[in-house]
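Structure tokens please, single chain.
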Amino acid sequence: MTERTRRFAADRTLGKLARRLRMLGFDTLCECEVPRRRFEETIDAERIFLTRNRREFAKPVPYRKLFIGSDRPGDQVIEVLRALHIQPEEIHPFRRCLFCNVPIEAVERNQVLGLVPDYTWETRERFTRCPRCRRIYWRGSHTERALRELSVWIRRAAEERLPKPEDPSPGPGLASGDRKPGP
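Here you go.
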């Protein structure tokens, strides 16, 4: 797995973290969006499982996992950035649907006429849309607030970064897959 293709799977207690990771551009599955007892089947070896549940973290699994200690979503993002040594150049904000986790696509302005508020259509030139749920996105004041929040997360993660391990062994709160996948 290259650093640019980090993929996550968040347990049901981390729905807000999952949405924020999507906002940062990371492919992030969320247990609350998958039928019960099927979530583990959706986690492949390329994903990092994020959990606040100590029992789930202790289970032997064939994929990497990261225990999230904080209960505040912004601090949870910082924990992920810090523990995995995610660099600013790996972050590509606003490229995934926050609800579907699908990459969003640019659409022509005239294609959203009547689908967004009139003022928005009149004052914005660029729009994107989720091909799955059809939600439409545009840059507005909410985007500016999110970008300010993102810069705070990156700064705090860099200031408080854990030392990068010299070997591929897991660091504090991070465990590698420790069982072979079943048949």
